[in-house]
Design goal:
The complex is a heterodimer.
Chain A lengths: L2 E5 L3 H13 L3 E5 L2 H10 L4 E4 L8 H10 L7 E6 L4 H9 L4 E4 L4 H10 L9
Parallel strand pairs in A: 1-2, 1-3, 3-4, 4-5
Helix pairs in contact in A: 2-3
Chain B lengths: L3 H15 L8 H15 L4 H10 L5 H10 L10 H16 L6 E6 L6 H12 L1 H4 L3 E8 L2 H9 L1 E2 L10 H7 E4 L2 E4 L1 H4 L2 E5 L12 E6 L8 H14 E9 L12 E3 L5 E4 L4
Parallel strand pairs in B: 1-2, 1-7, 2-6, 7-8
Antiparallel strand pairs in B: 3-5, 4-5, 8-10, 9-10
The chains are: A alpha/beta, B alpha/beta.
């Protein structure tokens, strides 16, 4: 069973994402900012991370920079998931080491496609 | 509610016009798809719509009904596997047999809003070295002129550009305009769109090396499927390739094709 860590300061978004992810049989962990996400990663590195941009205490990009410096910090697939939807922010996220990028609002199709894209889910022909 | 006789009329109408086969229980689909058409045309209910279609006095109404019933949501790199096969196996194999300077021709037979031909165009750009200077022509057809107009513009909303499209491709090949994303002129110029009903002859399109005819045969009955496959075989090069949708097959429908070396594509049956 693969683990996905959902990092978002909105409890609603975490809940929505959790429901979708559990539907595809992921184990889901939650964190409400970058700092508590790092603490989770230090306990056990997840397989994937769904990462909001703007959060109190530590933002998504700050978290990602620190994560990628960790010994096994290159392993998790990181998918940004944010309302920031311009070319500048997307490029910045990829340059910082993100694997994919979701522009909110998202639905089940989009999340599934992006997880397939980074190799966390198998593609099912439909 | 649709009267049984009206439902029957629409079924036959759609079958004749587009090949679309509706089973007995598609009243809901019919109503939800045709409601916007009726509103636009100022038609109050299904019975009057059927009357208007029978007289044929309202120009464009028949096309609008066919458009509404045959337009289906599409996504970039749908099912992924065909596109992986195209770049890793089919193109390299085909190009060995095509001299530099020859043009490779690809046909998307149910192009819808353009995601499939544009996915192929982006893939070709990504694999430019493979082409070795050979020219590629992508012809994209669909029964609906409305979706083709959208496809030609190449403008997609935020949901559409996140379905199947890797974010790298979004950055490389799209520009943001307001809330929408438009695919680059360079990619658009690689695709030629034209309207085509697969029930009608398509010899005039010329011969193709690769045909994508995905997720359209499923809407046809068996004789129509066989007929379309036979005529595709007529426009496919002897050493050409055919891609069908994930739930489609040639089995029991055509003897002209056999499965390729990997699941997901077909080649012409070798001459005995």
């Amino acid at each position: 069973m693969k683990t996905v860590l959902v990092v978002d300061d909105s409890g609603v978004v975490r809940k929505v994402a959790r429901r979708m992810l559990e539907g595809w049989l992921f184990r889901v962990e939650e964190a409400e900012n970058g700092e508590s996400a790092l603490a989770r990663c230090d306990l056990a590195m997840p397989d994937g991370i769904l990462l909001d941009w703007n959060m109190p205490v530590m933002t998504g990009p700050e978290f990602l920079a620190q994560l990628r410096r960790r010994a096994d910090g290159a392993r998790p697939k990181v998918v940004f998931c944010t309302t920031l939807n311009d070319v500048h922010h997307i490029s910045q996220a990829l340059a910082a080491g993100a694997d994919e990028y979701i522009m909110k609002p998202f639905d089940e199709d989009i999340l599934r496609e992006k997880l397939v894209e980074v190799g966390l889910l198998d593609d099912i022909e439909q | 509610m649709i009267a049984a006789s009206d439902y029957e009329f629409l079924r036959r109408f759609l079958k004749t016009r587009s090949g679309l086969v509706l089973s007995d229980d598609k009243q809901y689909l019919l109503e939800s798809r045709l409601d916007p058409v009726m509103q636009k045309a100022g038609i109050a209910d299904m019975a009057r719509l059927v009357l208007a279609l029978r007289d044929g006095f309202k120009p464009g109404l028949a096309d609008a009904v066919v458009d509404a019933m045959t337009t289906n949501e599409s996504l970039f790199f749908r099912d992924k596997n065909p596109f992986e096969l195209l770049s890793s196996l089919v193109l390299p194999e085909l190009l060995q047999r095509r001299a530099p300077g020859q043009t490779v021709r690809i046909w998307c037979a149910a192009a819808s809003t353009g995601q499939e031909p544009y996915s192929i165009a982006m893939l070709l750009r990504e694999n430019e070295r493979l082409l070795g200077g050979r020219r590629v022509e992508i012809v994209a057809t669909d029964i609906s002129s409305e979706v083709l107009a959208r496809a030609e513009e190449g403008i997609y909303n935020q949901f559409e550009v996140q379905r199947g499209l890797p974010v790298n491709y979004l950055l490389r090949y799209f520009a943001k305009t307001g809330d929408m994303w438009q695919i680059s002129q360079e990619i658009r110029s690689m695709v030629r769109f034209s309207r085509l009903n697969l029930l009608q002859p398509f010899n005039h399109l010329g011969t193709f090396d690769i045909v994508f005819c995905r997720n359209v045969l499923i809407y046809f009955d068996a004789p129509t499927k066989s007929d379309v496959l036979a005529r595709i075989s007529g426009v496919l090069a002897k050493d050409g390739y055919l891609f069908l949708g994930g739930a489609e097959t040639v089995l029991g429908l055509s003897l002209d094709f056999v499965a390729g070396s990997k699941r997901g594509y077909y080649v012409r049956k070798p001459a005995a």
